[in-house]
C-alpha cells in the first residue's frame, strides 16, 4: 500500500505541476493584464514581504516527520500521541506570534516603502498586509495536521486537496477580476481556499488517520532536542526567504512597483522551475528517514542520491534548455509588452539553481542524519552576502543586477561548497554521482545543437511556429535521451506503468 501511495504521490505531484503550468500559461497573463503592471507589482511586493513570516515555522514540520517516522518504526504509539499534542501546541503558538509580527509590519508599511510607493499604493498595501498576515496565521495550526498526513505517507489525499485548491482558485478569481475587483479580491479568495484546506486536513487526521493528541505530558527534553534540530532548518528557511524575496523587497525600496512586476515574471518561472525538481524528492523524505537507521546507510543514500538526481537532471535540462531557446518569445506572448528584461532575469535565476535542484534529496539526507548544521550556517552566511551584493547591483543595474547578486551567492554556496561537504563530511560518493551525470551529457548533444540552430538562425514570430518548434524540440529531446541517456532502471519506470495500463485496458475489454 505504501508503494502505491508513493507512486500515486509522484503521479499526482506531476499532475499538480501540470495544472500549475496550465494556470501559469493561461490564468497568470490574464491576471497580470487585469491588475495592471503597477498593481501586480504591488501585490508581488506585499506577498514577498509577508512571506518572511513563514520562517517562523522554524523547521518544526520537518522535525515532526523525522521523529514521527522513527517512533512509528519502533512501534511507540504513546510517543506519537505526545508528539502530536506537543506539535499542535507549538504550531498554535507560532500562529499567534505570526499574527503579532504581522501587525507590527502593518504599522510600519509606510515607513518602509514610502519612497517608491504612491499614497494610494501604500493604503492598498496596508489592506493586503492585513489579509495576508491572517492567511499565514491560520496556516500554522494546520501545519501540524499536514505534517501528520505526510508522516503517514498519505500522499493521495494530500495531493488531491492541493490539486482541487489550485484548480478552484482561478475559477473564483477571474469573475471578480472581470467585475473590476483587484488584488484585494485575489487575496481574499486565497484566504477562503486556505480555510477549506485547513478544514480538510483536520477532518482527515481525525476521521481517517484516527490521530490522537496527548497534551498532559509535554516532553521538555524532547522539545530541547527538536529545538536544536529545528533551529538549523530555521536558518535554511531564512536563507530561502532572503534569496528568493529580498530582490523584490530591495526593488520596492529603490526602484518601484513596475520594476518589481518585471522581476516577478522571471521569479514566477523560476519558482515553477524549482517546484518541478521537488516533485520526486519530496515523496522520498520518509524513506530517507528510514534508511538513516539502517546498516550501510551511506551506500544506500548515495544510490538514492544518484537515482533521484539523474531523473531530475533529465527533467531540469529539458526545461532549462527550453526556456533559454524559446523563453524570449514566450514572455512576449505571455506577459505582454514591457517585460522583455524578464527573459534575462529568468535565465540568470534558473541557470544558478540548475545544479542545486537536482541535488534536493541531499537536503532530506542531511536532516535525517542530523547533519544540516553546516548547510544552515553556510546558507545564512551566503544570504548575508546576497543582500550586500544585491543592494549595490540593484541600485546600479535594477532587476537584472538584483538577480545577478542572488545567482553569485547561490553558485558559491549551493554548488561549490555544498558538493565538497557532501563528499568530505557526509561521505556521499559525489565522484560517482557526477560520473553518472556526465554519462548523460552525450544524449543532450543532438537536442542542444538543434536548439542552438533555432536560437541563432530562426525567428519565432507567431504562436503556431512557437508551439510547433517546442513540440519538435521536446520529441527530439525524448528520442535522444531514450536511446543515449536512460539506463534500464529509468526506462522501466516508464515501461512498467504503461504495460500495466495496457493490460488493464485489455482485461476491461
UniProtKB/TrEMBL annotation:
Topology of the protein relative to the lipid bilayer: Multi-pass membrane protein
Cellular component terms (Gene Ontology): plasma membrane
Pfam family, one: Polysacc_synt
Cellular localization per UniProt: Cell membrane
Residue runs in coiled coils: none
Keyword Cell membrane tagged: yes
Transmembrane segments: 12-32, 44-65, 86-107, 127-148, 160-178, 184-205, 265-285, 313-331, 343-366, 373-393, 399-421, 433-460, 466-486
Organism (species): Intestinibacter bartlettii
Designated name of the protein: Polysaccharide biosynthesis protein
Lineage of source species: Bacteria, Bacillati, Bacillota, Clostridia, Peptostreptococcales
Origin superkingdom: Bacteria
Keywords: Cell membrane, Membrane, Transmembrane, Transmembrane helix
Amino acid at each position: 500500500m505504501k508503494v502505491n501511495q508513493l507512486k500515486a504521490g509522484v503521479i499526482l505531484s506531476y499532475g499538480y505541476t501540470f495544472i500549475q503550468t496550465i494556470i501559469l500559461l493561461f490564468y497568470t497573463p490574464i491576471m497580470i493584464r487585469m491588475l495592471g503592471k503597477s498593481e501586480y507589482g504591488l501585490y508581488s511586493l506585499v506577498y514577498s514581504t509577508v512571506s518572511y513570516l513563514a520562517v517562523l515555522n522554524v523547521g518544526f514540520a520537518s522535525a515532526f516527520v523525522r521523529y514521527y517516522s522513527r517512533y512509528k518504526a519502533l512501534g511507540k504509539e504513546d510517543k506519537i500521541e505526545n508528539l502530536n499534542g506537543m506539535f499542535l501546541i507549538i504550531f498554535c503558538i507560532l500562529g499567534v506570534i505570526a499574527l503579532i509580527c504581522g501587525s507590527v509590519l502593518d504599522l510600519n508599511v509606510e515607513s518602509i516603502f514610502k519612497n517608491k510607493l504612491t499614497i494610494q499604493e501604500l493604503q492598498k498595501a496596508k489592506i493586503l498586509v492585513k489579509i495576508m498576515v491572517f492567511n499565514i496565521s491560520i496556516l500554522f495550526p494546520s501545519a501540524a495536521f499536514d505534517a501528520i498526513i505526510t508522516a503517514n505517507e498519505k500522499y493521495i489525499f494530500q495531493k488531491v486537496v492541493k490539486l482541487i485548491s489550485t484548480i478552484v482558485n482561478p475559477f473564483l478569481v477571474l469573475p471578480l477580476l472581470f467585475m473590476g475587483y483587484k488584488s484585494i479580491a485575489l487575496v481574499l479568495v486565497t484566504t477562503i481556499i486556505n480555510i477549506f484546506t485547513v478544514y480538510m486536513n483536520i477532518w482527515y487526521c481525525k476521521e481517517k488517520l484516527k490521530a490522537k493528541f496527548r497534551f498532559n505530558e509535554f516532553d521538555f527534553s524532547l522539545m530541547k532536542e527538536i529545538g536544536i534540530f529545528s533551529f538549523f532548518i530555521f536558518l535554511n528557511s531564512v536563507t530561502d526567504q532572503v534569496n528568493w524575496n529580498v530582490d523584490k523587497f530591495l526593488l520596492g525600496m529603490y526602484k518601484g512597483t513596475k520594476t518589481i512586476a518585471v522581476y516577478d515574471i522571471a521569479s514566477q518561472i523560476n519558482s515553477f522551475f524549482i517546484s518541478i525538481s521537488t516533485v520526486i524528492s519530496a515523496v522520498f523524505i520518509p524513506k530517507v528517514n528510514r534508511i538513516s537507521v539502517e546498516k550501510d546507510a551511506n551506500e544506500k543514500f548515495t544510490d538514492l542520491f544518484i537515482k533521484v538526481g539523474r531523473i531530475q537532471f533529465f527533467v531540469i535540462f529539458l526545461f532549462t534548455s527550453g526556456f533559454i531557446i524559446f523563453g524570449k518569445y514566450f514572455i512576449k506572448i505571455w506577459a505582454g509588452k514591457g517585460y522583455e528584461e524578464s527573459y534575462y532575469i529568468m535565465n540568470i535565476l534558473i541557470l544558478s539553481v540548475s545544479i542545486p535542484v537536482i541535488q534536493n534529496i541531499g537536503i532530506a539526507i542531511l536532516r535525517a542524519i542530523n547533519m544540516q548544521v553546516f548547510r544552515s550556517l553556510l546558507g545564512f552566511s551566503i544570504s548575508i552576502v546576497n543582500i550586500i551584493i544585491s543592494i549595490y547591483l540593484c541600485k546600479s543595474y535594477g532587476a537584472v543586477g538584483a538577480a545577478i547578486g542572488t545567482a553569485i551567492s547561490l553558485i558559491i554556496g549551493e554548488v561549490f561548497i555544498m558538493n565538497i561537504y557532501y563528499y568530505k563530511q557526509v561521505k556521499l560518493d559525489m565522484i560517482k554521482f557526477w560520473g553518472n551525470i556526465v554519462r548523460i551529457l552525450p544524449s543532450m548533444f543532438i537536442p542542444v545543437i538543434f536548439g542552438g540552430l533555432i536560437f541563432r538562425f530562426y525567428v519565432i514570430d507567431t504562436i503556431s511556429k512557437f508551439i510547433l518548434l517546442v513540440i519538435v524540440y521536446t520529441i527530439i529531446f525524448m528520442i535522444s535521451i531514450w536511446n543515449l541517456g536512460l539506463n534500464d532502471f529509468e526506462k522501466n519506470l516508464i515501461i512498467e506503468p504503461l504495460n500495466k495500463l495496457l493490460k488493464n485496458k485489455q482485461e476491461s475489454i
